[in-house]
Amino acid sequence: MGIYGEEGKVVIPFDYSAIYDTHYNHSCHETMFPDIAHIYIVEKDGKMGTIDDKNNIIIPIVYDGLSGWVEYGPEGHFVKKHGKYGIMSPKGEIIIPIEYDYVGLPKKDITVVRKNGKYGVLSCENKEILPVSCDNVILDISRFLKEVSDGSWSRMEDNISRSKIVVLQQGTWNYYSLDGKLLQSNVPLKEINEHYDYLLERDEPSNEHPDFHMKRKGGVQR
After folding, report:
1. Domain count, the chain
2. Which whole-number Å values give the CA distances from 144 to 8, 141, 149, 156, 160, in the listed order?
3. Is-contact 119 112, C-beta < 8 A?
4. In sequence order, what are the beta bridge partners of 160?
5. 220 lies in a domain?
6. Is 88 exposed, middle or buried (0-12, 13-18, 19+ CB in 10 A)?
7. DSSP character at residue 198
């Protein structure tokens, strides 16, 4: 697979088994790549990377999976290598190390990770919010809105004060703030079941779920 230009000339050689679009924010693209019109995810010999519209490699073509974007998170890609996952910037810089069995969709600049059967919470700058020692983690990010007045006008914002991280550790449920401060310990199981039973019944989360838009050999179409 390759790409022809408007004049019928080959601009991307037919060296690839698949070519996918990236989905960077427009302003991010202009800032990071001011002289590049298009960036593509490509697949070659079962490995993924990115190239520009002149076939220059940006992210080396050595990864087993690469998403088109990180929904709700930093500009970049979920990336897979040797069965582990992380997040990488459009220029190939590591944001979340590629060492986790699972990296969740970010919410309010934090994300759940899993490693060796244990869960933790990281910021989208790889700052530890909660260590990877928890038995279960739920990000309860409030979708309720509050009105904020700036004097002459008002706007609606997420009500962050109602958001929390719900954590199971050593048989005990606790609530934490989004920056990792303990809000309430020994939360009754009845309360947990009333509010989160539908989440507790889900299968173990995986980056291979369609929500992550991971592209891999024989995977998602462009």
Report:
1. 1
2. 52, 9, 17, 10, 9
3. yes
4. none
5. no
6. buried
7. H
Pairing of strands 39-44, 65-67: unpaired
Q: What is the pLDDT along the chain (222 residues), one digit of tens a residue?
A: 898 888 888 889 999 999 988 888 777 788 888 888 889 999 999 999 999 999 999 999 999 999 988 877 788 899 999 999 999 999 999 999 999 999 999 988 999 999 999 999 999 999 999 999 999 999 998 655 555 555 555 445 555 557 999 999 999 999 999 999 999 999 999 999 999 888 887 778 888 877 777 775 444 443
Q: What pTM was computed for the model?
A: 0.83
* Residue among 204, 210, 165, 170 nearest 184 (CA): 165
Residue 145's domain comprises 3-215
132 in a domain, yes or no? yes
Q: Is residue 221 part of a domain?
A: no
22 contacts 40 by C-beta, under 8 angstroms? yes
Flag whether 87 is in a domain: yes
Ranges assigned E (strand) in 3-149: 3-4, 10-12, 18-21, 39-44, 47-52, 57-63, 65-67, 77-81, 84-88, 94-100, 102-103, 110-115, 118-123, 128-134, 136-140, 145-149
Structure tokens at 27: 């302003």
What is the rounded distance in angstroms from the CA atom of residue 190 to the CA atom of residue 15?
58
Residue type for position 184: Q
- Could you tell me which residues are beta bridge partners of residue 110? 107, 123
